[in-house]
């Protein structure tokens, strides 16, 4: 079951869409070209407003519905939407769409035009953003699991090339393809975890815990807020988390389900210290705080983490996509605000399921 | 200048959208949730049809226009569109959109829901399809060049990470980042071009010619139909084509502007033979032929190419994305139809600007 949404947009000389009469003329030309593809086209509704331009709804048999919007600034958008039953051919093929785009652009003498590749809606969710908010369409064929915990929306989707993927609140977190993510985060081959005491903040997918345990640490404690994430990963992401989420406590590790800040405070009060603290939380704090307070949250995590570290301890965490220069800068600004002072190095890796290169931080006392 | 289009879709139990009354109730709930974000929301238009469900247009000050469509099969799509002036904050942030998605899904008890990452329309074209028709959003910051030749729409776009990209009729062809494409196509380090006679079919971006000339062939003839493509690449893709498109004829090479099939026929009639023929044409023939005839065109190219090859000659070409199994199978079927019989090997490379792995073919007489 899926709807197809096909979006076109055209940049016109603003002189051609400044008045209502001009916009009517553009709309007439568009309708004429659409009729070459949709012969039964009818106008259902139109609206004109002084400041905001022209908007109309056209349809063919009420099946294909087309909205056309002309902005006075010289922008024309056309949205075509229809229901595509399983096994049926699309009403508008890539080639038909391309011809229509070309015909409209030519007739309107457009400065530029584009047909956005057809969006498929309603069968499986497949569109997620990259770190720099570009749309990524994954080759997802199955929704494996979907639930809403008290903290977030949890999805496990199956990608043909990346395996099962964990998606939290519409953001891709980790996939079966992403051992490189965990190995870069932990600095495999660089750091020596043997006999060390380790604290993981977050890490609910279990991948970091699983990989760390292979390196014979003395003990690992993991602070994860969302029980449901762990249940989902334990069931569907065994490739990357093995069986570590099966138990909550062994001689080697303990998983505590709760707010990591509360437990960090408890550890600090107890005077507990670690060789390594891992920041493996989702990018955005799980709370109702406005996005701007995100940096306060991150700094709180930093401050508490460094109180938990031995003098030669290390704080290891992911940063962001390497293309997100502004966000990385803000992240480093937070590090520079810390007292006592810290210093850091970075590593990077192309993470398959992120479809981009990410930066990782290794932070120590200066 | 840009419009923002934000698409939501929800899969509902089909039992909840089967009748007009049920759809009205879904629409009422959706409107109620939308009003939490858009407090001035008004209903402009609605349409109900027996078979195809419910469609409505809502708006806030005629600035933000929202269409809501409820398909009787249990699919709900919501499209939000508004004009975002330069430097203004988006009306709907990632977080607001995510909360709205969550609220609607919860209220409707949806089986699944998604907010598609915001689409930016009208500033620069940035959405192009992968070989398997997934949408790719490039980090394009400038439209460098756009023109429509008698054969196709030609765009040079600048990507922050990939450099200048050549896009023909909405399909990404080659970027400054893609030396690996040309090197894999020509089998650099495997094939020996010294003193050889070579024919390139297509290749208007000049990259293949440029790289081949570095290997001291006896002579290269290139058959390219579109003069305007070569002018654009000569001006904006020097990184990959050097200065080879500056001249049409030297002692080492000749560029003939025309239909390659016509010139292949001429060469066959003259008894001209080559050590290598390269199929470096765009995927889809430049003609008004329906897409189904594409394979006939490809076979025609094969047949003529092999008539131009010396007995130990090679035909080298790209295939398709490695995920396009069906298309690759059809391609190989065409090769198997050839007489005299041919055999082939393949190589593959991840092409940066394609954002996927591609397969390349090396074909010889069996």
TrEMBL record, chains A, B:
One Pfam family matching this protein: Spermine_synt_N
InterPro entries in the record: PABS (IPR030374), SAM-dependent_MTases_sf (IPR029063), Spermi_synthase (IPR001045), Spermidine_synt_N (IPR035246), Spermidine_synt_N_sf (IPR037163), Spermine_synthase_animal (IPR015576)
Top-rank taxon: Eukaryota
Keyword flag Iron-sulfur: no
Keyword Transferase: yes
Keywords of the record: Polyamine biosynthesis, Transferase
Any GO molecular function: spermine synthase activity
EC number: 2.5.1.22
The PABS domain, residue ranges: 125-366
Annotated catalytic residues: 280 (proton acceptor)
A biological process term (GO) from this entry: spermine biosynthetic process
Family named by the database record: Belongs to the spermidine/spermine synthase family.
Name of protein: Uncharacterized protein, isoform B
Organism: Drosophila virilis (Fruit fly)
Chain's gene name: Dvir\GJ12230
């Amino acid at each position: 079951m899926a709807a197809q949404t096909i979006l076109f947009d055209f940049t016109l000389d603003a002189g051609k869409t400044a008045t209502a009469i001009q916009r009517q003329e553009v709309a007439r030309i568009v309708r004429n070209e659409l009729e070459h593809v949709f012969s039964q086209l009818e106008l259902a509704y139109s609206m004109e407003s002084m400041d905001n331009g022209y908007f109309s709804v056209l349809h063919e048999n009420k099946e294909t519905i087309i909205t056309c919007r002309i902005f006075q600034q010289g922008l024309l958008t056309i949205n075509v939407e229809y229901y595509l039953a399983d096994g049926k051919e699309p009403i508008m093929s890539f080639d038909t769409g391309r011809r229509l785009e070309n015909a409209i652009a030519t007739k309107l003498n457009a400065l530029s035009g584009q047909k956005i590749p057809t969006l498929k809606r309603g069968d499986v969710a497949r569109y997620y953003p990259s770190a720099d908010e570009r749309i990524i369409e994954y080759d997802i064929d199955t929704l494996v699991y979907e639930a809403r915990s008290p903290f977030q929306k949890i999805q496990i989707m199956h990608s043909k090339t990346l395996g099962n993927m964990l998606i939290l609140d519409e953001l891709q977190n980790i996939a079966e393809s992403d051992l490189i993510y965990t190995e870069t985060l932990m600095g495999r081959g660089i750091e020596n975890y043997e006999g060390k005491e380790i604290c993981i903040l977050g890490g609910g997918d279990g991948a970091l815990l699983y990989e760390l345990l292979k390196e014979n640490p003395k003990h690992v404690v993991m602070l994860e807020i969302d029980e449901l994430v762990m249940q989902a990963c334990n069931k569907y992401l065994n490739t990357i988390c093995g069986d570590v989420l099966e138990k909550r406590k062994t001689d080697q590790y303990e998983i505590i389900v709760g707010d990591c800040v509360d437990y960090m405070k408890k550890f600090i009060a107890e005077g507990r210290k670690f060789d390594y603290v891992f920041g493996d939380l989702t990018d955005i704090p799980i709370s109702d705080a406005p996005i701007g307070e995100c940096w306060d949250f991150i700094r709180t995590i930093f401050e508490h983490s460094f109180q938990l570290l031995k003098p030669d301890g290390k704080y290891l965490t992911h940063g962001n996509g390497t293309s997100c220069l502004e966000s990385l800068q803000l992240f480093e600004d937070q590090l520079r605000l810390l007292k006592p002072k810290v210093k850091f190095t970075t590593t990077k890796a192309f993470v398959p399921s992120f479809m981009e290169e990410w930066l990782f931080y290794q932070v120590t006392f200066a």
